[in-house]
Amino acid sequence: RALEMQRECQHLLEERRVEEExxxxxKQGLALASDALEHGNLAQCIQSASRALQIDPGNSxxxxxxxxxxxxxxxxxxxxxxxxxxRGFYKAQNYESACRVCAEGLALDPExxxxxxxxxxxxxxxxxxxxxRDWLKQAQERLQVGDYxxxxxxxxxxxxxxxxxxRALEMQxQAAEPLERQLKLEELLAExxxxxxxxxxxx
Length: 203
Description:
It is a single chain. This protein has about 200 residues and is mainly α. The chain has helices spanning about 1-40, 40-55, 60-90, 95-110, 115-145, 150-160, 165-200. The longest helix is centred in the N-terminal third of the chain and has 37 residues, at about 1-40.
């Protein structure tokens, strides 16, 4: 009888020891998974969480850690794809597409430095292109109505923004020549009026 009790006690102690070991391994696995997730080591997190689930298949913390790491890994891969696309579009000078994929990437990872930089540089180029188009249109309209001074002012702005822009140089020349004739004519008319006022005007 005493021997049976002794065996039962040993059995209970062994069960307790095994359970404590199991809990310790589970706790360690969860701690490793949590630490790995915090430091962005996603594959390590998935591995540690999977080990924890082998010890305790229904453990909600391990399931959540594994799910979070898996989702973050999918996001990371998607961001890498979008970054590669953004670099390609920027290199090909397709700035609108570069902006679009950067916005997609930044929605997934708002702190991504390179995506933010490519987006900013693409937006600056697009803004510059829009300004050039607007000024070219404005200069063309002023040229058509013979407002040559306005054409020269606008083309000066254009050439500051884009030196050697062919259309701006062309319009500048188209405005300069008639403006010179116009000023010369005004000078002659003023001279003629001056003579008339002085009584020196000859019939």
